[in-house]
Amino acid sequence: MISFHPEAGAHIHRTIQLIKSHGKKTGCVLNPATPLSAIENVLGDLDLVLVMSVNPGFGGQAFIESQLAKITALRKAIDMLGKKIDLEVDGGVNPVTARRCTKAGADVLVAGTAVFSGGPDRYAANIKALRS
Q1: What is the pLDDT of residues 88-104, one digit of tens each?
Q2: Into which CATH architecture does domain 2-131 fall?
């Protein structure tokens, strides 16, 4: 799978076609300020949409609450298409925000700080907390 930001080029559909021409699945990454309208015309061509719930750049940032509405709206749009499109969330994911994201419709979560904080002896417990 190859994922890209819609801001990376002027022709999102061409980018999707190019990736798929190489036999790869395609994902699109939405930064917190990127509106859903950036991908609404190509949503059905995607295999994954990744909602960044922090501004990309470094770990340990706080979850941006406004992204829950984006996740909810995306889940509704994906379900209306009736296609298998993964909805992923990355940034500020911890046991509390993980529950909120999955309730909003996310089915894939990325967690870094929540998993690796406390050192190697805490990894299993941290993962268990995320899953519950």
Answers
A1: 999 999 999 999 999 99
A2: Alpha-Beta Barrel (3.20)
Across-strand partners of 6? none
pLDDT for the residue 61: 87
Q: Are 6 and 28 in contact (CB under 8 A)?
A: yes
Question: So what's the pLDDT on residue 57?
Answer: 84
Give this prediction's pTM.
0.94
HSE at residue 104, side-chain half, CA atoms within 13 A, is 24
CA 11 to chain centre: 21
Residue ranges of the chain with per-residue pLDDT less than 70 = none
Beta pairing partners, 119: none
34-38: long-range contacts, CB 8 A cutoff, minimum separation 24:
34/5, 34/6, 34/7, 36/70, 36/73, 36/74, 36/77, 38/6, 38/7, 38/12
